[in-house]
Amino acid sequence: MIALINGRIITMEKENYRRGTILISQGKILDVGENISIPSEAEVLDAEGKYILPGFIDAHTHVGIAEEIYRLEGDDTNEMTEPLTPQLRALDAINPDDLAFQDALLGGVTTVMITPGSANVIGGMACVLKVWGRTFDEMVIKEEVGLKIAFGENPKRAYGEQKKMPYTRMATAAMLRQAFIDAQNYQNKPDRDRDLGKENLVKVLEGQIPLRAHAHRADDILTAIRIAKEFGVKLVIEHCTEGHKIVEELLQAEVSTVIGPSLTSRAKVELAERTFRTPGILAAAGVPVAIMTDHPEMPVQYLPLCASLAVKEGMREEDAFKALTITPAQILGLDDRLGSIKKGKDADLVVWTGHPFDIRTKPHWVFINGKIFSCNTTDVAIISHNSSKE
């Protein structure tokens, strides 16, 4: 058992603590609060003068499937041979030795959503991993957390160059609709041979998982909403670069948004209106907002920097914290385990040397399932504590 004492705890629940205690046992949060009795067998860690928050969640990355060093050998992001590949799973391409997992720890990021790329109209299944585990299976939290689809320039560019559909936005929408119609026919056919792609589309139709739609421009976002409404499926808008232009439409559609990467150049026409004001505008209006890096488009360890820049451009600090913790946990369907410091949740915590949005602040300790990592330098070291023996 571990007792983490004297820290300023921001729980992402109803109550925060200026000098609080967190008890950790068996990889879970046993208790949190002030004036908590500390068992004699507990190993005490003093967080005096430090902030303690839930581990941050990057709700859209390509960690492990787009390796930074091995740009060709390690790039398994896009299967650019067919525009419709719902049968694919990001999980099957992840290299758990990708250095980005360690980078994430150094940035206080304990959980990442990993998705196929956006070259295909339907790219495949996204998954969620913790950034450390004794085995790869231990890292995996959820194998299927949404089906990636894409609108806009990427599918057009990937297949237009091959003189194949989709060459236009019309073709992208038509191909997606036809894929869902084919899946409905498959769904209603009593005697059928198995088809992995159609099975995954049926999971969307039956509400088991959402569509995760790559869409930057407002018109592409509205097309995604239109098709989701047509087939009665759940929708998450990824990137949502021009979301600030259609706030009411996003609210009416009751969609969640994962915004970013905003700390990039305007490398393509769809990013003309990229701004750090977008997450604050949407959050203030009541749209669920998570902030992402889209690693390796922006390195995963700079997720807190993205949130601090959003605060600089008008986002409320509380909303920015939510966009890194409880909101992405809710969007990923994992808020029963992650996203806040609450009794019974996973002991995924970060002890920060100062305020997390201060550029000078670093993680001091990172906890994943109660396992402690020291992040005082540019490297990560596992600290052996009693919790590892429980």
Mean pLDDT score: 94
- What pattern of helices and strands is seen along the backbone? EEEEEEHEEHEHHHEHEHEHEHHHEEEE
Distance between the termini: 8 Å
Task: Tell me the total number of β-strands.
Answer: 17
| Total domains | 2
CATH fold-level name of the largest domain:
TIM Barrel
Q: Give the number of helices.
A: 11
CATH class of the largest domain: Alpha Beta
Low-confidence stretches: 384-390
The amount of beta strand, in percent, is: 15-25%
CATH H-level name of the largest domain... which superfamily?
A: Metal-dependent hydrolases
Can you name the CATH architecture of the largest domain? Alpha-Beta Barrel
Gyration radius over CA: 21 Å
Structural class per helix/strand content?
Answer: alpha/beta
Largest sheet: 9 strands, mixed
Shape: globular
Q: What level of helicity do the residues show?
A: 25-40%
